[in-house]
Every structure is written in C-alpha cells, then in structure tokens.
Amino acid sequence: MNLNPVESYLCGLLIGKGFINNENLVIQFPFNNEFVEGIAHCNLCGWLATTSPPSPILKCKNQECRNSKDPQIPKDIKTKYHQPSMFKDSIAKIIIPFLHSGLDTEIKLLSSSRCSFISIALNDDLKKKLEFLFNDHKSFSSFSIPDYFYKTERENQIELINGLLDSCGFASAGAWIAREGSNGYGRQRIYFQIINRNYYLPVSIDNFLRSVFSIPIQTIDWGHPNIRDGNLKYYFDGKSSAFGREHQVKVYPEFLDKFHFRISSKQVLFKELLNHNLQCGFNRVEDWFPGSIKKINPARVKAFHPMESNTKLPIEVRKHFDAFWQINGVLGCKFINEIANQSSDRDLFLKTGIKDPVQNKESIIECFESNSRIKQEELLHVWKENKQKEEQKEEQKEKESGKMLESDTYPILVSWVQEYSETKFQEECFSFDTSSQTLFHFFSKNDSMSNSIADELLKEEMAIRPDVVSYIPSLKNFIFVESKVVTLGLKEVGQLLGYCAIAQPEEAFLVTTKNVSDSVFRALSVNSDLLNYGINKKIKLGKLNGKTLTLI
Amino acid sequence: MAKADLENEINNWLQNEFVDENKILVEEIFYKKNLSKENNERLRHVNNIDLLDFVTDYAVLVNVNNKYEIGLINRCDTSIGLREIGEMQVYCRIASPIFAFLISSKGFSSEVSNFLLNDSIVEKLFSYQKRHLIGFQMVESSPIYDSILPMKYRKDLWMNLNS
Q: A445, CA 20 to 30 Å: which among A134, A194, A241, A453?
C-alpha cells in the first residue's frame, strides 16, 4: 500500500481531530476565541512585553528598559487575527483544494463561529487504506501515528506532521517559557494539544519527531492526576476529573521550520513566534530527554492521588507517577525504554530513575511510597481547613434561599428511575445524575460502572446532557429523565425531543415540580404525535410532588 | 454579538429577502408574540391558529396564492444546539409553518456539528411534514453559506415554499 502526500496530510488531520464514520470522515477545526493576538514587543527596546493584570498596560520584560518600571506600552500594539474568517478561508481555499488534488471523493464544509468541520465521503480505496493504517480505531480518541509513516517518503512524513499541526497544533503568543536569550527574553513554543482520552498520541508524536526528524521536544504536559493535579486541589474541591484536560506536547518553533500550517491564522502566529525566538538568540537545544534521566529525589515525590487508580485511565497509567518521563516510559517512549532496558533493574529505574544496582531496593521503594502518603495527608489537612470555611458560607446561602432547585430533584429522580427500570426490565440497571456534562464525557470518566457496560455507551455522538439516565444492559439502551422546576411548556418538550431524536432512548420522561401547561395539552389533543421521537417511542410527562413522581 | 445587533441583522435580511427578491408576499411580521392570543383578523385565516400557543422571536404572516401561512424564526445569541433544534421542531409539528429558520450569530455548536454532517440524523432532527427547518449562522445580515443545514438548502433557502 502506498499513500500520496495528500492522503498523508489527511492522516495527520484524522489523528489530530478526526472521526472515521461508516460513510464519511469528519475533521474538526476548533478555535476558542474570535480573535487571537500576536506577540507584543516593547516599543522602546523590542523585548517581549506582557500584561500584568489588572492594568491593561503592557510591561516590558527587559529590566533595563524604562517600560519595565513605568510601563507605557498600549495593548493594541499586538496584531489581532480574526480566526473565524481565517479558518474558513484557509479550509475552503487551501485545504479542500489540496485534498481534492489527491483524493477522488466528495468533500463538504460546515462552519460556525467556533469551529469548522469538513466531511469527506469514504470510497473503497480510502476505506481500505484507513483500515490498514488504523485497524479498528475510529477517532482521535485513540489514534496514534501508524508504523507505515516511519518507512514512507520524506514528503509524506512532512505532510503527516502538517496535518497534525492544522488539527491539533496551536501557535499562541502566551505559550512562552521564562528563558533568557542573548538578545531577548521569553522562549515561545508550539503546542500539540491532544484530547485526554488519547494517552498514546503524545508519546507517538514524541517518538516520531525525535526519531524521524531529530527534533527535540521541550516537554510533555500530561493530563494525569499526579501531574496536572499534583497538589490534589481540584480533587479535594470535588472536581475529581479536572485533571483530564488535554495533554500538551511542547516544541520550540525553530525546530519545526520544515513544516507549515495551512490554516493561515496559525501560520502567521507560527512565523511570529519563530521570528521572536530567532531574534532573541536562544542557542540552547532544550530537550526533556537530553540522553539521560536524573534520579528522582525521594523528598520531592508527589502525593498519592485517589484518581490515579481510576479505571477510565488506560491500564498502563493507572498508577502513581512522580515525574512525567515515567508516563512516557510506560506508554512506549523508545528513548526511556532504551535506558530502562540497560538499567540493572528495569522496574526500579521506571519507579525511581535509579540505573545502577542497589542493595536495598525494597526500602527505597517503601521510602518513596511513604513520602507520597505523608504528602497526601498534609494536603488533605490544609484542604479540610479551607473547606470548612466554604461550607459555612454555603449553608448560610441555602438558608437564605429556601427554594427547590432543579439540582435538588436529581437524587430523587435517580432513585425513582432506578426502581422503575429494575421493576420494568427485571434486571440490574445503572442510574446516574448526568446533568453536569455530556453523556459521552460522563461515562468516559465515571468509575462506578464496569468497563464492559461503559464501552457500549462510549459513542462520541452522545454529546447530549439529559439530567438523569438509567442504563439497561440487556437492551444496551437508556432511559432519559429531564427535570424542570417550571411549568412544562412546548419549549421544554422540544428541548428533550432534540436529545431523544439523536439518542433514541428506550424511554424518556419529562418531569416537573410544577404543572403541565394548557398549550401542551391543547397541542396534544390535536397532534398526538407531538411527543413521538421514534417508532412506538414517545416522551412521557410526569409531576414530582416532594419525593413522589406521578406520570400524567 | 449582542442580541439587539443580531435582531437588527435579521430585520435587514428579512427586508431584503422579502422586498428585494420578492419571494413571497409578507402581510405582517410579529415580533415575540403568542399568535394564539393576538387579536388580528388575518391571523384567523391561518390553520389551527389557536394551537400556536407559544412565542417565537419572529412569526411571519405570508400570503401564498391567496392562502395565509405562517413562517417561524428563532434567533439565538449562543450557538445552536439540540435543545434549540428540538424546540423549533415542536413548534413546526404544531404550526406546520411554510418556513422555519433557526438563526445564530455563532452557527451550530461544535458538540452537535459532528453528527449533523450525517444526512440521516439531519433528516430526523430537521424534517417536519414535507419540509425542513433550516439553521444557519448570520453575519452582517447574510446567512453564511457553509453554515446552512440541511445542506440541500444552501443553494436556495426558500425551497420549502415549493413543497
């Protein structure tokens, strides 16, 4: 099998932000803000200038410059780039024509103010190639760089990275790190941002860039509990899955000069960052892997994090780590593994960074683990003190309001639907409050269901947020419950109907603590199909009185 | 974009579409009105007007071949998600409007766009009777071509008038 450069670019797009569906491929090109700003340079000395909130005035980073003590640099010195138009134009006028030059298939564009999507119809040839490359993997949640690209022509390898840059690569003026150059300050970096579910891609990118192009990687910032939430702040605050933001592979732009973004707003920013770094004169080649690994200091280990054993983490990383390179190692970083294999004790090296033989392996490991436990206790103690103060404030607030909130109904509805589904379907069912996030994200991170059941739910299109769901294993389907603390009108019916049309739940309930409006009853009297969302499927209405739910 | 700005843009667009291109004869535009409660002689000629007991941002009374029909428009200052589509779907099932538009300054939300590129899902969500409700992003009083769903309406937003 041979790929052309266009197909290689397409693979880069897919790996970064793509889905393989039955009939088409879909690539996302997201952007968060309408405008993205370029780098600010001091109007007196040309050094990096940054904001120091709350002042809107920018401050020069050069301590010798007048603008560092008495800053006078206006914010509008930065160039602003309009992302929606630049993304759309680049996709419509550059990317789609480029894709057409090497793919004989239909390509459609869907754009909005925050994201553009392209849909590429799958023909037999493309389908076969993608099956060969990605096997059973169907989305950027699990893609990594296929081995094929280690052996293919240089042009294909470059186009693969170009595709990755356009899909998950980001150039941002705020992505600098504190470094002194011979002629300036602040070293800019390009980020590959990888969805948290995909733990394999960061190492795959690191291996590929370093092996094929000899590019140093500044660091990998893992969205793992021990790394992203090392002081357990999010966890103790009740945001147990907040560690799960994107992984970031950070690379200096001066090492990416053989590649280019086809998205014009990314490319102009890339040029700005590159020129800044060149002008500052950073001569050091900085690489997280300089060819060796330092031993981990036992006094500086990380606290145990309860989420490090969460079953939604891939099995390789479902454990404790004290340094990010340890994660690289267990996920297949070939450079770490070369050292590990040369070490006297591979497991000890991956746990502590110790390469040479030791007499007292067990006591070293015990010391690491004991320090992690002590740190966890210390952090918990500090958090409890802070939490007590917050709780007192919240109690006061609740006393003052006294109203039933929608969130108060969720636990009642979870109990009700659990009993309802188990009585009706005569099997063990699983009911949850899913109001805070989409079904897909909820079940991706929820640890209380067995993996076998969760897999059935992990369809990416479940980007919907019913308040409460119950899962019926034998039917591999849900019951949805949507709760309202207002009178049920046509608007509320419509909102649930949208969810149901997509997910086709086994049953759906719309529940209110108030009443059903006359307009709904009147419309139903004329149009009995109003609540239908599938063959023999209809939304049921209910009224919640205290803890009792009555179907209407 | 502020709600008021989007409303101005929609107003400009409606005037251009209805006046300049003369697609249909507009009798009256109702802004945030519950049509079932309006005391209006011409509205009484609309089928099932008493059932239209809801409020959309715009309801357009049009005259097609001497028959009064209603067109519905909702605007969102957030991106269009399943809730907004479902809400409009319910109104369409009740009112059988001659056209129905969901207009946002942001277009469809990223969360739903992936599956909205699947024609069969679009059909399920957007179709009513023999027509479709249509959603798009509006900028400077013009629909953004690439944002229009269902895609078949990109060439002619007013195809519903022929069905």
A: A134
